[in-house]
Amino acid sequence: KQEVTQIPAALSVPEGENLVLNCSFTDSAIYNLQWFRQDPGKGLTSLLLIQSSQREQTSGRLNASLDKSSGRSTLYIAASQPGDSATYLCAVKSSGTYKYIFGTGTRLKVLA
Amino acid sequence: NAGVTQTPKFRILKIGQSMTLQCTQDMNHNYMYWYRQDPGMGLKLIYYSVGAGITDKGEVPNGYNVSRSTTEDFPLRLELAAPSQTSVYFCASSQTSGSPRNEQFFGPGTRLTVL
Asked: Which of A79, A81, B19, B33 could join B92 via S-S bond, C-beta 3.0 to 4.6 A?
């Protein structure tokens, strides 16, 4: 059974710092992995999706990497800004299933 | 495109009442999902559908029912509401072709309180 873990649960950093958010999964037979951002009281916004055949995806200041063999994905945020403050969730879709399994998220606060 | 829309945004129910949460997407996606999110937790899958007329249970289906008569609509029915169903409910959809495949798009959520 696939399990997805995100550590730490919360993180505070000063503005301008580069940071890494972690996502671990137990079953390496994945189809893809998706990173989301969730603002308080709002829905989820898709940030990046990595297919199982890819090693990384980039969008602006965001870079997501995938290492299936170690069961890990990281979301790198460059030059963090107060507007990046939100909860970041990762979700894993295993091969042969239609379902996504979500981590519990990392709540990020970027201090001005 | 409006994307994924959900109604209502907020609702308070009394124990034992029933209601239907509406979800519509205008992206012609085959896959649709219902999740619930409890405070401090990730999302748990309630039901999903891979196309009109096809639905299946997720991790936490008890107390809920769904139907999928059209590609666009995927309503979630709560029968005999219980306090344990107090949560935020999200509907999502995804595509099966194109790039990136299976990227999920979410609605804004319905915040439900059962008293």
From this structure: B33
Interface of A with B in 55-94 (CB under 8 A): 89, 91, 93
Contact A104 B105 (CB under 8 A): no
Whether the upstream peptide bond of residue B39 has omega within 30° of 0, thus cis, is: no
- Separation between Cα atoms, residue A97 and residue A100, nearest integer Å: 8
Specify burial of residue B90 (Cβ count, 10 A radius: 0-12, 13-18, 19+): buried
Q: Is beta strand B10-13 parallel, antiparallel or unpaired with respect to B110-114?
A: parallel
A34: closest chain B residue by CA: B103
The C-alpha angle B24, B71, B106, rounded to 5 degrees, equals 40
